[in-house]
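ok so i was messing around last nite and threw this chain in just to see what happens. nothing serious, just curious
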Amino acid sequence: MKHKIGMALLCLIFSLLMLLFYLSKITNTSHQSISTTVLVSSRHRNLIIIKPNTTLDEASTDPTSVTTQPARASFMNPNDILESGFIEYSLGVSPLSDMKLVGHRVPEKILIPVDISDIYFSVKTASIYPDRLNTVMLTWAQTVSIEQISIITDATTNWTDAFSSRGYSISAATQCGLGHSVQSLCCKSGVEYDRFYKSIESGKKYNWFCHIDDDQYYNVWKLKRMLIKYDPNKPWYIGKSHHGPTPLSFYLRQNFPEAKGNNYKFNTGNVYCLSKQMMKETEKYLRGGNFDKSCSKTTRIDDVTISIIIVGVLGHKQTEEKQMWSHLELLDQLPKEESMKMISFGYGHLEGAYHGRWNTSLNLPNPRFSYNADPTRFLSYHCMVYPKLKWCQ
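result:
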């Protein structure tokens, strides 16, 4: 009996050592001294947690330095993982795995061991820019579950029909018309808000409404890391501000007397997040066509109007996160070492021209693809964060 127990114990220790050896090979960190390391075994879906200041080589000879836990996102703190010095992720089958997007690349689902299910992602796009949506669906959208993404466009296309047939929530707000007018932008934003409120009424539980334009990239890991600093039960309006205050004209004051004050700084509309408490307080201004009416009163586009509602009417403050990108900033001025710290970024286009210059694209260290192959820099950035993707090889 003792002999059998001894053999079983030896087999268990040997299996653990082999697993650690396997992980050390795929991570190439076997000789690097690191802080508390959290690895995720894609084969076993377990967390393998190594004691602080223990290398993988040391851990392989000291089984007491290693513990394992099931990889359940609900108990994982993004700060603990992101500060650990190493993040392992696993790949799954994307609902779009039979489609080829952006240079015949096939989307791969990225399974990250952090709970982001409390974030509602609202993407605003336009039918004249199918390549933008394709790039989003190939890159950062693969880190988010289908149920969390809502896509608003102005007309259906073959591409939106294809995404919709694979389970993605896409709404064609044909009543908003085409173009980039104040009326069109505000109308589509109103549809975004309506869909969020309807989702909540259906029983979904979201702490955050996060809007993003189709020409932006979200680093979902960093977004979650930022959001956990804030209590969603308080009214938060988080984004990257316009460079200076926008005067509230006399005409606007006459038509929108609820607004107080004379000058407003606003978070630019390419990317921002509102807490669930803020969404509750703004509901009567945003829902059921009321946002369109508010825009008509302010005569301003959607991002300025929502700022006037939140800051001017409700009296809340704007919260600025430096690592969320404003489309008025020049990306080529951002140092390379800062580029990988961004929560979101975009790329240059006509509407984003500022001070007579294009915004160009993110300045990455050693990009995987040439500028001609990857003018948005979304592909190269995505491969730097998730290098195991097949199309990154």
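not much to say yet. Residues 2-27 form the longest helix (26 residues).
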